[in-house]
Design brief:
Recoverin, domain 1; two-stranded antiparallel ribbon; 8 helices; 55% helix; EF-hand-dom_pair; repeat
């Protein structure tokens, strides 16, 4: 998805292991690692990612969706509200250099539509279970909120 060759990616992986032999990165290093996205603005994405991840999370689909949920739940209250979701959609757009934010692609409208689709409890927020169930049922919403590639029963980040 980045238009880089397998050889380039393998070289970056090797460089990562040289620069971070313990497998840990600080915010500055993570920001530099995401600079390969053309026209991408990575600062907001890294800020949100760092708020959630401090180690490598691997696991099955439900586990990976739970991690994606935690990444969106910035307030750490077990719910994703429209503001949190709007901010995350904007950060994902920034990361990918997405400039078309009009109509249905406007982050606030997209967040409201997603919450409406997933919020079975009608409390205008998404619980972790609503998020997981909704993403598994709707591949388009899953691609927006948890852009991972499925490989068998595990997922790989696909930003």
């Amino acid at each position: 998805n980045t238009n880089f060759t397998e050889e380039e990616i393998r070289r970056w992986h090797s460089d990562f292991l040289k620069q971070c032999p313990n497998g840990k990165m600080d915010k500055k290093q993570l920001t530099e690692a995401y600079k390969f996205y053309p026209n991408g603005k990575v600062d907001n994405f890294v800020k949100n990612a760092f708020a959630t991840f401090d180690k490598n999370h691997e696991g099955n689909l439900d586990e990976r969706l739970a991690v994606a949920f935690d990444m969106h739940d910035i307030s750490d209250d077990g719910q994703i509200d429209q503001k949190e979701l709007t901010n995350m959609i904007s950060a994902i757009y920034d990361l990918n250099g997405e400039t078309d934010r009009q109509g249905d692609r406007e982050p606030k409208k997209r967040a409201a539509k997603i919450i409406s689709a997933l919020d079975v409890g009608n409390d205008k927020k998404i619980s972790k279970q609503e998020f997981i169930t909704g993403c598994k049922a709707d591949p388009i919403i899953c691609h927006i909120l948890a852009p991972f590639k499925s490989t068998s029963n595990t997922l790989v980040m696909d930003y």
